Amino acid sequence: MNTYKPKLTDRPVSLCMIDVSYRIKNDTLINNFNLQLTSPGTSIILGHNGSGKSLLLKLLHGVIVPSSGSITWANQAPSVRQYWRTLLLQQPTFFNQTVEYNIGFVLRIAGIPRSEHQQRCQHALEICGLSHLARRNTKCLSGGELQKVSLARAWVLKPRVILLGEPTVALDPPSVISFENIIQQFESSNTKVIMTTHDLAQARRLAKEIVFIDKGEMIEQSSAEKFFAGPASRQAQNFISGELV
Predict the structure, then answer these.
(1) Whole-model pTM?
(2) How far is it, in rounded angstroms, from Cα 36 to Cα 34?
(3) Over the chain (245 residues), what is each successive 10-residue block's mean pLDDT?
(4) In angstroms, what CA-CA distances link 61 with 35, 83, 148?
């Protein structure tokens, strides 16, 4: 059972990874990973496709467990039942129901008092620009609208941390802009955003901090300003110069 219930006024929820590895049979996919995140703002995880970004998010959320090493959020091991943290991957799934139903469903499974459901749903719909679509079936929505629904479904739980996996990879430019505006609103509400992408332009727009990984290994962590001024590692230098691997 989740006993940690941070409030919006709390300090950022600290993350600590110590010597984390993840193996499947004889393949090491995440190798001796060490990472600490304690600052507010958006942290973006950069790396080539196949570098381990999605696996890293799943480890951070508790969807999968490390083969060795430790992961803690505010001194607790991650669990998918910690509803103060949400994970959004590239292809979210929805019930064949209205937008409002899909958002309200997570309140029910998280045990939020029914008296709060309507207010929370309305606020999430407003923040994500979906109020006019509340009664529409999700099967009738565009890709950009569905991504907004996934954000609203996450935001309705008032999370302290949102983990996002390549959230705009299939969206057109207007949808990307709208999505990024929502992310910035989350950040301004003191929610920690940890997001993976290989889109350097997006990272420049959103990131306060960059974590660069390569082949399942932690390579570099720095402020976004410092990283884009000149990465310290050869791998990151090659990445931002567009060199293929």
Answers:
(1) 0.91
(2) 7
(3) 41 88 96 94 94 96 97 94 90 92 94 94 94 97 92 92 91 90 90 92 96 97 96 94 75
(4) 15, 10, 21
